[in-house]
Design brief:
7-stranded antiparallel sheet, 10 strands, 3 helices, globular, mainly beta
Length: about 170
């Protein structure tokens, strides 16, 4: 998963800021198998993604003509960190194994856990990825895409990610 994303390169990123708006009217999505819950706008829908890859679920708004659709994807990559490394070290090791130049990243926090945030711009727009440890061996990833012209993380994404919490 990480290898496919890093091929496109990346740009410098900045740290997240806390949400300013009230999200109390948003729905709650809880996934005990993946170990998290988050809030999302009532106009959005939840879509499990099937396939042979890692566990994944997508939350997205209902498509509207002439407007890019907002969507956020949550992934769990099981046993990808067998040595239980801190997420920053795991991420750096992944880059070394690919012989890739390390893209600029920001260390931040999601759900009270250390998180590596990466951003890159490619043919399909601007993509933000967040990597954090779900437990000792599993990595939790959040991926959002938006138009390349939108340099800052969309406010709806920022609010949604700020409400994420990990569950035992």
């Amino acid at each position: 998963m990480l290898a496919a994303v890093l091929v496109f390169g990346s740009a410098a990123v900045s740290a997240q800021s806390p949400p300013q708006a009230d999200v109390s009217g948003w729905n709650v999505y809880r996934n005990e198998t993946m170990g998290f819950e988050t809030r999302y706008p009532g106009t959005w829908q939840v879509r499990p993604v099937k396939g042979t890859g890692p566990e994944t679920v997508m939350l997205s708004e209902t498509p509207q003509a002439g407007k890019p659709q907002l969507a956020v994807q949550f992934w769990v990559q099981r046993n990808i960190n067998p040595n239980g490394l801190p997420v920053e070290q795991w991420y750096a090791d992944q880059l070394r194994r690919m012989n890739a130049a390390p893209p600029p990243t920001t260390n931040t926090s999601i759900g009270g856990r250390s998180t590596v945030r990466m951003e890159h711009v490619g043919a399909f727009g601007r993509q933000f990825q967040f990597f954090t440890s779900l437990n000792k061996t599993d990595i939790f990833e959040i991926t959002v895409k938006q138009p390349a012209s939108h340099e800052q993380l969309d406010d709806t994404y920022r609010k949604l990610i700020s409400t994420l919490r990990f569950i035992p």
